[in-house]
Amino acid sequence: MTLLISGFEGGEFSEEETGNILHTVPKDIQKSAEKRLFNLKDALLWVNKQRNPQFEPTQGKPFLLADVTHLHALVSQGLDEGHNPVGQFRDNEKWQKTYVGNAEHGGRYQPPKCLEDIEYLLQAWIEWLNSPTIINQHVIIRASLAHYYFELIHPFWDGNGRTGRLIEMLIYEQSGYRLSSSAIWQYYQKNIHEYFALFNHCRKQAKNKKDLPNTLFIDFAMDGMLQTINDLHDQSNQLIGFLLYQGSLNNARFNKAISERQFNAIMVMMGFSDTYTPAALLRNPQIKALYSNRTERTFYRDIESLIDAGFLFEQDGKLLLAI
Q1: Which domains does the chain have, with CATH numbers?
Q2: CB neighbour list of residue 222: distance below 8 Å, 6 or more residues apart
Q3: What global pTM score does this model have?
Q4: Is 158 known to sit in a ligand binding site?
Q5: Is 301 annotated in some ligand binding site?
Q6: Which of 54, 170, 197, 254 would be a feasible disulfide site paired with 105, CB 3.0-4.6 Å?
């Protein structure tokens, strides 16, 4: 969750900084940016509680307007960012203008401004989202369109982006998507310029009465989900490979196929983020300590033995774990 929150908030904090903030006592949080992290954590936990244990991508669950205001309240509570009453829709005065977008991402537009129009559009959005035609569409189509149209309405003074992505996540969770429902946000963050530009492109396509104006945004969401699922699959394979490697290493140690010293050398290497040549590895303080009472020849013999046993291999002169 720490990585997700860090990515979802636009990379303002690193993963480590995000973790430190989330472990701070809430009453000690002073900055709005830090408070937003806490709020997002609360919102994600609430969305997770709505999770469907069954995978049902074409059996949508009814969506409630109360969920929208609740999500906005969760992400906006306690923030001192000007006029943004939690869970309350905009009602612009005649002199107040709200704009969405910018020139960099295809232009900006004015969403509906008076409360009466916003409430009417949101109610129509909910009825459409729960209509027989839409509720049983594949969840990727339903969730991405729910997200898209919510952002066009832009019903709150602030926090619409966070609320819209949480709405999308909630719809995914209601269909049993679990990990991929939140991991797709990292895809959005990696492709943030395209994400914003597509809102404007599709809006202009609809304004010009083009056929299927929202197709590109749906395609974008589908590509993101496919990439997300593939990434999760790769991560799972890497984890399985690591566990199998660790099991083989433990068995070799238990059966004395490798020495305790060789086992410890591998364990030290597991903590490295870089690769080393054998000579550079021997200069590492931890490895050097393991061989403090041994000759260099012993070290190189141990390395050759670990390569022969399949626990290490050399590539471009550097040692890598054979995971």
Answers
A1: 2-233 (1.10.3290.10), 258-321 (1.10.10)
A2: 140, 144
A3: 0.77
A4: yes
A5: no
A6: 197
